[in-house]
Specification:
The chain is of the alpha+beta class and 129 residues long. The chain contains four helices and three strands; from the N terminus they run αααβαββ.
Length: 129
């Protein structure tokens, strides 16, 4: 019998979107936001899980900095729906939009990226944790 892996959602995905979360979705998906996200309840739940529970901005220690994590500048911008989307010029941990980048959101493992020129790290947790 094949083993199946179940994606787990936190309870907070049942709460309404915040203004900032709507801004993130609208920025990344542009005119396709309604068709691709808002009108698809299960997909919206995945996006909420990403924004609320699976992306963490952390301060990296010297030990972590020496691990040479991939840099944010190496992650392509997600332009599938919004062709005018641009990379952030200045990193602000309070309003960083992870949906703008092609992170490995659907991977079985977690990833850490370093924000270029800073000691900030972006941790993308596995959806199967």
């Amino acid at each position: 019998m094949p083993s199946s892996i179940i994606v787990k959602f936190d309870d907070n995905v049942n709460l309404p979107l915040s203004t900032l979360e709507k801004t993130f979705i609208n920025e990344a998906y542009g005119d396709a936001a309604y068709k691709e996200i808002y009108s698809r309840p299960h997909r919206l739940k995945f996006i909420k899980q990403i924004l609320r529970n699976r992306v963490q901005i952390v301060k990296l220690t010297q030990k972590h900095l020496s691990l040479n994590y991939p840099k944010l500048s190496e992650v392509p911008v997600f332009k599938s729906f919004n062709k005018t989307l641009k990379r952030d010029v200045v990193f602000n941990p309070n309003n960083f939009n992870p949906l703008k980048y092609t992170f490995s959101f659907y991977s079985k493992k977690s990833y850490t990226y370093q924000v270029d020129g800073t000691n900030y790290g972006i941790v993308i947790k596995s959806q199967y944790q």
